[in-house]
Design goal:
Blueprint (H helix, E strand, L loop, with lengths): L1 E3 L5 E3 L16 H10 L14 E2 L11 H7 L10 H14 L3 E5 L2 H12 L5 E4 L4 H9 L3 E4 L20 H11 L7 E4 L12 H13 L4 E4 L3 H11 L8 H10 L3 E5 L9 E5 L2 H7 L2 H5 L10 H14 L2 H4 L1 H15 L12 E5 H4 L9 H13 L1 E2 L1 E3 L19 E5 L7 H16 L7 E5 L5 H4 L1 E4 L3 H13 L3
Parallel strand pairs: 3-12, 5-6, 7-8, 8-9
Antiparallel strand pairs: 1-2, 4-10, 9-10, 11-14, 13-14, 15-16
Bound molecules: ligand F0G.
């Protein structure tokens, strides 16, 4: 919730109180450097015990509510016909207006099943932007991902409120170029993860849906961050301020044929889901569920998480829950703008995205500026962020490196986990690092896996710059 202060400013204030806490420790900078070296300059390979603030992701790391935890205690572990599933299914119908629910173990599992059901070799899948696991699954099924974002989408500094929109002209062109039979579906990702958590507007979704449906092409929506996209529609789109987040989510679904999600984000659990009103899709996908995930009424999820998902789904459409992380991210972004640290604007959902292309503009893209920046952020602050740039791109089929459109260090803000003093600390350390940016150098791979290389890839600092950074830090702040 935003409260007005006497000085005229606003303050994002928590609509919850903390009842259970988890200790986190800031280890000395030399130990942070050692941990980063041992982790191959890849923040995925750090150990949690060495991390002060974990901003790698908001996925599966949100604080659950008392009601979610309580619901977990009454779960029904039946292998088949679990009551927990029926409670989830009721929640999906209530919140999304969708009749047929299929749980999966997480978001990428839903993508796997959709790829198997919808995509034939040679198909194209137009979308506002890809997500790493989405692209990997769709390409593995023989499809080609086409990103048809608007010109504004990749501008890291912008006032445009819906950078996640699809360019309608490009959508028409794709359909006429490839033919409607070659388009598996149009995919809309609610608050496009890789370009800074940027939302699309209801108007755009409506228009995309009209074009797709005129051509008999289904619209699939990735709802992993649905409550944030709905919150942005509520706060930014003309005519929607009087509609509740719940009404907005329901309306969004009326333009789509199928939704899937990772429950690890907006729903604050661990699990995934596919839901639709189209019996034909349900009948086609359901047989795949026991094969790859689990029986229809648990789909690879624990029934405890299924219960918590049903509660989380109802809670996420509360405007103060939907906006809880979004407003904190905005506060973080505004602080960095004030401090002149290059950051993606406007603030999106899921994270504060620092623009590595501008932050470390002396590092060429094939020396991974965003990877280097995430490593440097950890060494000097104990904050773990995530590389979202060229390291996160896999090579093409000929083994050529694909440089990313954007080079971002993503500092995710898990829901209801960190406080404003954590955010102030992060902003202060990023400012220090920006003032010392020339100390940061590039990275090179010493081990590069063939797919989703960002997970397990190991790198080395070109010129051992980590040491120089740690020394400069000690001069200003001491050992810690
Ligand atoms: N779609 C979107 C938009 C996502 O952000 C994610 C995951 C997935 C699908 C895959 O879901 O992890 O449950 O299998 N994003 C995480 C992140 C990993 O850190 O942003 P999953």
């Amino acid at each position: 919730m935003l409260v007005k202060l006497t000085n005229g400013k606003t303050l994002p204030i928590e609509n919850h109180k903390v009842r259970i806490v988890q200790k986190c420790e800031l280890i000395p900078v030399d130990e942070r450097l050692k941990a980063m070296e041992e982790g191959g300059y890849n923040t995925f390979l750090l150990r949690s015990k060495d991390i002060f603030m974990d901003m790698l992701t908001d996925s599966g790391t949100n604080a659950m509510s008392d009601n979610q935890l309580a619901a977990m205690m009454v779960s029904d572990d039946a292998y088949a016909g679990s009551e927990s599933f029926y409670r989830l299914s009721d929640a999906v119908e209530e919140i999304f207006g969708l009749k047929y629910s299929m749980p999966t173990h997480q978001g990428r599992a839903s993508e796997h099943l959709l790829a198997k059901y919808f995509i034939k070799p040679g198909d194209v899948i137009p979308m506002n932007y890809h997500f790493t696991t989405t692209r990997a699954h769709f390409e593995m099924a023989g499809g080609k991902v086409l990103e048809i974002y608007t010109d504004e989408a990749l501008k890291t500094t912008s006032d445009v409120q819906f950078k996640g929109n699809i360019d309608l002209k490009k959508l028409e062109d794709v359909i006429s170029k490839y033919g409607r039979d070659k388009v598996s579906f149009v995919r809309m990702e609610a608050t496009t993860n890789l370009i800074g958590g940027q939302p699309f507007s209801m108007q755009n979704l409506k228009e995309v849906s009209a074009i797709a449906h005129k051509n008999n092409i289904p619209v699939v929506i990735d709802c992993s961050l649905i409550s944030e996209n709905a919150y942005f529609i509520h706060t930014r789109e003309a005519g929607y301020n009087k509609k509740s987040v719940a009404e907005i989510v329901k309306e969004m679904m009326t333009y789509c044929d199928l939704m899937y999600l990772s429950g690890r984000k907006s729903c604050s659990v661990r699990g995934g889901l596919i839901a639709t009103n189209k019996k034909e899709y349900y009948d086609g996908i359901l047989p795949l569920l026991p094969l790859f995930e689990g029986f229809a009424t648990y789909g690879g999820m624990s029934t405890k998480e299924i219960e918590a998902m049903a509660v989380g789904m109802r809670e996420m459409v509360d405007v103060n829950v939907a906006g809880s992380s979004a407003e904190m991210i905005k506060y973080f972004v505004d602080r960095l703008v004030e401090l002149k640290v290059p950051v993606v604007t406007p603030a999106g959902g899921l994270a504060c995205h620092v623009d590595a292309m501008r932050f470390v503009d002396h590092i060429p893209q094939l020396q991974y500026p965003a990877g280097a920046l995430t490593a440097a952020i950890f060494i000097m602050s104990g904050i773990r962020s995530m590389e979202r740039g060229t390291v996160s791109m896999d090579r093409d089929q000929d083994g050529k490196e694909l440089v990313s459109d954007l080079e971002l260090a993503r500092l995710a803000v898990p829901r209801r986990v960190y406080t404003l003093s954590h955010i102030e600390y992060g902003a202060d350390r990023l400012k220090w690092l920006y003032d010392h940016r020339k100390l940061i150098g590039g990275l090179k791979f010493v081990y590069e896996p063939p797919v989703l290389r960002f997970f397990f890839g190991r790198m080395e600092a070109i010129g051992n710059w980590g040491k120089a950074l740690a020394e400069a830090y000690k001069k200003d702040f001491g050992e810690i």
